[in-house]
Amino acid sequence: MTAEATPRMPASPSLTERQEERRRRILHASARLACRGGFDAVQMREVAESSGVALGTLYRYFPSKIHLLVATMQDQLQRMHLTLRKRPPGGDGAAERVAETLMRAFRALQREPHLADAMVRALTFADRSVSPEVDTVSRQTTVIILDAMGLDRPTPEQLSAVRVIEHTWHSALITWLSGRASIAQVKIDIETVCRLIDLTTPPVPVPDGPPPRPAAHGG
């Protein structure tokens, strides 16, 4: 199958420097409140007060708490991606590197379980009105995985494997947050699903037969 270009992150809406700085303050306030008390602690009025913006302004940036928390997750993934690029995963094979990448991301979320719970719950509750934001989170996760694989042009089969890996990672977060899976079990599940990468990697072509011998010259 033909390779496909690496999914690109959508361009951010055109914001002025002041608007971008305000948006960052809002996302930081959302993350701080979620770290303290999880999903229920993120109230739009408190986010507005904490970030120093008017409540009406906050709603112009994020129409609902779900929109805000999904955007918060996308912001957290961007931060993780920058960290991973500064300190890339080790391992000889793509599957091993992806498993290490996802476990490092998982441990980062593990350090802030209330924040992780708030963001995952927002993704779970998101309806169609939040589809663009959810798609952005999915594309960001895809780019992180493909970076770990070292791929610029994945095949359709490889992209399919990446989607299954994303679903497993998301499910592992949910089961861990609900107390139904240990960290050890999450690690096993992630390492197991990453083996799909090896199954979808095209084999290196092998030349047919031995190379031709040079012609003998008579003396």
Overall description:
- It is a single chain.
- The protein is mainly alpha-helical.
- It has a domain at 65-200: Tetracycline Repressor, domain 2.
- The chain contains 10 helices and no strands.
- The longest helix is centred in the middle third of the chain and has 22 residues, at 65-86.
Indicate the topology.
Elements: H1 17-37, H2 44-51, H3 55-61, H4 65-86, H5 94-110, H6 113-125, H7 131-149, H8 156-177, H9 183-193, H10 196-200
Helix pairs in contact: 1-2, 1-4, 1-6, 2-3, 4-6, 4-7, 5-7, 6-8, 7-8, 8-9
Number of strands: 0
- DSSP helix count? 10
**Low-pLDDT segments, ≥5 res:** none
Helix content: 55-70%
Relative strand content: under 5%
GO molecular function, one term: transcription cis-regulatory region binding
Protein name: TetR-family regulatory protein
Keywords: DNA-binding
Which features characterize this protein?
DNA-binding transcription factor activity, Tetracycline Repressor, domain 2, KstR_C, mainly alpha, 219 residues, HTH_TetR, 10 helices, TetR-family regulatory protein, single chain
Kindly summarize this structure in a few lines.
The chain has 219 residues and is mainly α. The protein has 10 helices and no strands.
